[in-house]
Amino acid sequence: MRTVLCFGDSNTYGQVPGGSPLDRYGLSERWPGVLQRALGSGWHVIEEGLSGRTTVHNDPIEGDLKNGRTYLRPCLMSHAPLDLVIIMLGTNDLKVRLGQPASEVAMGIGCLIHDIRDLAPGPFGKVPEVMVVAPPPMLDDIKEWESIFKGAQAKSHELALQFEIIADSLEVHFFDAGSVCACNALDGFHIDDEAHRSLGLALAGEVEAIGWK
């Protein structure tokens, strides 16, 4: 059996668009659950989503527990050995209070990749495969979240290119979630159940296409 860790934010946690942080799609509806079903019994898919998670930053309001880099290493050790780590982060780095351009968000993704390689939590102490997933761009209308994400909409459209550049430079896999799904209009930056399904199925194809030995 191969094991894949899905490391992300609210769009991995499955937060319902327009709902509260505790309004969450069911296990089988969230994209890691869809991925598990599509890959079948030969795979164990682990879901690690946290609303508000950043790549490498402590949130000055929500705290250091939202720092993806702080949590990643113990998370990897907890679930090792891992054959594949899928990272889908970046949206929360675009909050006004963090002030990150898309290129620096990509650098944060790069730090996480280096941390995975340093720890080498794959089978027999090897480095697992890594797949970077760029989140779908935010919509122009993000409702009451405008003040928190002011200016983030344009930057969110740059993430896919910047993530692809960092993924290529570090020789890891890349997928643009925006190629198969979009954010829901209820809040403009969360994906709905149909988008979760589309993303999970698309990622299953990407995972199966990796040259497993």
Assembly state = single chain
CATH class: Alpha Beta
The total number of structural domains is: 1
CATH-level-2 architecture: 3-Layer(aba) Sandwich
Number of strands: 5
Instruction: Tell me the distance between the termini.
Output: 13 Å
Which residues sit in consecutive blocks of at least 5 with pLDDT less than 50? none
Task: Give a verbal description of the structure.
With 213 residues, this protein is of the alpha/beta class. It has a single domain, classed as SGNH hydrolase (Rossmann fold). It has 7 helices and 5 strands. The chain has helices spanning 10-13, 31-39, 68-79, 102-119, 152-156, 159-169, 193-209, and strands spanning 2-8, 43-49, 84-88, 129-134, 173-176. It has a 5-stranded parallel beta sheet, with helices on both faces. Helix 3 runs parallel beside helix 4 and helix 4 (102-119) packs parallel to helix 6. The longest helix has 18 residues, at 102-119. The protein is globular, with a radius of gyration of 16 Å. Residues 6-196 form the SGNH hydrolase-type esterase domain. It comes from Fulvimarina uroteuthidis. InterPro entries: SGNH_hydro (IPR013830), SGNH_hydro_sf (IPR036514).
